[in-house]
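Deliverable D5.2: sample structural annotation.
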Amino acid sequence: MNPRRYFCCIFLLLFSSVLAVPDLIHAQILPSVTSTKTPTKTPTRTPTPSLTRTPTPTRTPTPTPSLTRTPTPSKTPTPLPLPSKTPTPTPTPVILVSPTHTPTPTPAVPGDANGDGHVNGLDYLIWLTYYGQTISGPEYGDFNNNGAVNGADYLIWLSNYGI
């Protein structure tokens, strides 16, 4: 090997990072070293907005309100009422009649809720519908008229069942 080429290869190997020639490390002998040009960046042109004229708004005259005088009312005397010869009606007293609670007639047969004269399953269904409520009257299943539909009314229905 030529000593001169040997020296160049060693020199290139040691300073390859400085020279930025990394491919020379792997090469055995380079006949000539050429520098590669790094492409330079060319600036990109950004289009600049062009100025456009915005139309100026035109002024439209607004009508000014005109002042109109309102006439002042004149004072005229108000006529006094003349006495009438017809008598003024007097209110008639109203007598309020309060509604009275008319007791429901008891059916002929105790335990008969629908008043058909028979104590049967229909009467039981009426008693069952109102069971546990505070309501008075045999038509609601309160056969003893104590104001509550309860077991005592059921016993009255049961003791008269089939009549």
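Annotation notes: The two ends are 143 Å apart (CA to CA). Residues 3-14 form the longest helix (12 residues).
The annotation will be released with the project's public dataset once the embargo ends.
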